Amino acid sequence: MDGSDGQSVLLRREGAVAVVTLNEPASLNALSAGIKDGIEAHIPALVADSAVRAIVITGTGRAFCAGGDIRAFDQRDTTAMRLRMQRTYRWLVPLLTSDKPVVTAVNGVAAGAGFSLALAGDVVCASTEAKFKPGFPGIGAVPDLALAYALPRAVGMVRAKDILLFNREVSATLAHEIGMVAHLAEPDMLMDTALDLAGQLAAGPTLAFGLTKQLLQRAFELPLEGFLELEAMAQTTAFGSADFTEGVAAFRGKRKPDFKGG
Q1: 187 with 59: CB under 8 angstroms?
Q2: Residues sharing a CB contact under 8 Å with residue 173, sequence separation 6 or more, in sequence order
Q3: Is 133 helix (H, G, I), strand (E, B) or coil?
Q4: At residue 22, what are phi and psi to the nearest 5 degrees?
Q5: Strands of 183-185's sheet, edge to edge?
Q6: Which residue among 156, 165, 183, 241 is the one 20 to 30 A from 71 at the CA level?
Q7: How far apart are CA 152 and CA 23, in angstroms?
């Protein structure tokens, strides 16, 4: 079922910030065909749009995203599942690897793939009423949308195993305490908080942010020598950017830098 205005995914701009809103509140924004179509259409386009320098993802109603749409689970033969996952990765990989910072504004329940989507944000901002639930063990599935990649990096391997294997529900407060959520906000202040954070990031050095994200993503994988090689290449790239030239000039001039994202 589409959202009340007929669109399963809403898109609006707040200056250099793009806000993507899952908009099927009746089904708790579960990943229906309509929502998947909307995400697949919008996310890669926003990543490629030079006018967009930060992205916010949130949900309408009392849920952020309740996970996979149970109505699609009947199509689970090997070929169908492989194609489904490959289609998902067409937007998930650009989202995770984009230079542009991503803020997830978790307004309510984030379950299953919705939990995964919440942790796809570089900065996770949650309502005090938000809840996180893996869901996957309850139906005999494994975590997807890179949850098993992101969660241990956020909370450590021991906590991640406990949450995923026991299907723990994690409150917003606990999520904040264990490092899964960076910012908490009262429900009526969530979007203001998320937009403020995204606005600060949108005004920053986008290329340097992207390089920093690459270093962080590879930090747990590479041996020290390999990591330092990547770091050297990243810093060489950053030093050659227009934003670095502006940053140095602003520092010397004792003024605020006017970064353009390049």
Answers
A1: no
A2: 128, 184
A3: strand
A4: -70, 130
A5: 9-14, 17-22, 54-59, 102-106, 123-127, 183-185
A6: 165
A7: 29
Selection from 9, 27, 39 nearest residue 71 by Cα = 27
Superfamily of domain 9-202: 2-enoyl-CoA Hydratase; Chain A, domain 1 (3.90.226.10)
Reduced to 3 states (helix: H, G, I; strand: E, B; else coil), residue 51 is coil
CATH class of 206-253: mainly alpha
* pTM assigned to the model: 0.93
For residue 153 the two structure tokens come to: 């990096």
Backbone torsions φ then ψ of 10, nearest 5 degrees: -100, 150
Evaluate the CA torsion angle 202, 117, 42, 189 in order and state its sign. Answer: negative
pLDDT of residue 2: 42
Q: What is the DSSP letter of 189?
A: G
- Can you say how many angstroms the Cα of residue 251 is from the centroid of all Cα atoms in its chain? 31
At residue 1, the pLDDT reads 37
Dihedral (CA of 123, 151, 20, 194) sign: negative
- What was the pLDDT predicted at 81? 84
Could you tell me how many residues make up the chain?
A: 262
